[in-house]
Amino acid sequence: MNKNELLALLQPDIEQINATMRTEISQCGNELLGKIVEYALFNGGKRIRPVLTVLSARLCVFTSMPEGLAQEDELQPPVNLYRLASIFEFLHGASLLHDDVIDKAGMRRGKPSANKVWDNTHVILAGDYLHTSAMTMAGTIGNETILTLIGTATAAMIRAEFQQMQTVEERNLSEENYFSILRGKTGCLISAACEVGACFAKGNEEQRLALRSYGDALGLAFQVVDDLLDYQGDSGKTGKAVGNDFVEGKITLPLIHALKKGEHEKSDQIIGLLKDDASVRADNIGLAKAFIEEYGGFDYARQGAEALVEAAIEALSIFPDCQARQILIGLAQYVLTRQK
């Protein structure tokens, strides 16, 4: 399944998710708040998380249906499933608003970040609103299990932000620490999006576990590829300056591997740059990139992403072959080829 085929199959659900989010934010009660929230949510996001919720629910419903009762494309998800799915885009949007304030970011997805259009106070409050709205929706639409899944994933995101800041300060070169941060920042929310869909559709424990595992592996693979794109991507497509992670002092998988494999003198030079000012690192992005290339960091990370995608696809093996399963497989494969 190529990218265009995948997008065509996802488009109806994406349109419904967008319409649902617009309805929700139209009720915020403040014009400026609504503008900031809309800017954050409709600034080029891929809608991967809410789509995963819808697809996971559809997969579980189709799997449990008696054979021949209905065709898969005849299944029409209820409105509350789209509202539940929107929660994950609200939480993601809230985290991006807060991240851009914390990082003093100037661009987001190739456009000025919200904190450059409005002041930090308004942007922080808008992020708080999205977060609060998400948890309110989780408590009213979902059950206790769903609320727990979403709350646990949100708490994991916050802990991971603290862990990442400490990692930058301590220059922790542990792969275990790296993947722990990734799981908290990205994997937990994506796996929760999948499992919440299964819960909504009353999937059994085996199905919930399979979709949780799929989401976890997919989220990790997505972030590893994101870390590769930071060095190797086209800034015109990614919307971020090349080497931004290095400038911020973030130690990602390609650099971790290269530092472990590199000659002491060269590794020490890179570590010295990590201890220096961001402006110095900005002047030495080319040096860092060449160092990672020389010691196989990019190849190593790419192989890791491929293994994670294989694990994600394998987790779906308990489900029968159907369109929802094929789309989930296609999404996993797309992660390896995406350019933004």
- Strand content of the residues, in percent? under 5%
CATH architecture: Orthogonal Bundle
Helix content: over 70%
- Using the alpha-carbon principal axes, give the shape: globular
Cα gyration radius (Å): 20 Å
The termini sit apart by 19 Å
Mean of all residue-level pLDDT scores: 91
What fold name stands as the CATH topology?
Farnesyl Diphosphate Synthase
**Domain tally:** 1
Number of DSSP-assigned strands: 2
State the secondary-structure class: mainly alpha
N-to-C SSE string, H for helix and E for strand: HHHHEEHHHHHHHHHHHHH
Kindly provide the name of the CATH class. Answer: Mainly Alpha
Fourth-level CATH superfamily: Farnesyl Diphosphate Synthase
How would a crystallographer describe the biggest sheet?
2 strands, antiparallel
What strand order characterises the main sheet? Answer: 1-2
Number of helices: 17
Residue stretches low in confidence (pLDDT < 50, at least 5 long) are: none
Explain what the structure shows.
77% of the residues lie in helices and 1% in strands. It has a single domain, classed as Farnesyl Diphosphate Synthase (Orthogonal Bundle). The longest helix has 28 residues. The mean pLDDT is 91. It has a two-stranded antiparallel ribbon with strand order 1-2. With 340 residues, it is mainly alpha-helical. It has 17 helices and two strands. A hairpin with a 2-residue loop joins β1 and β2.
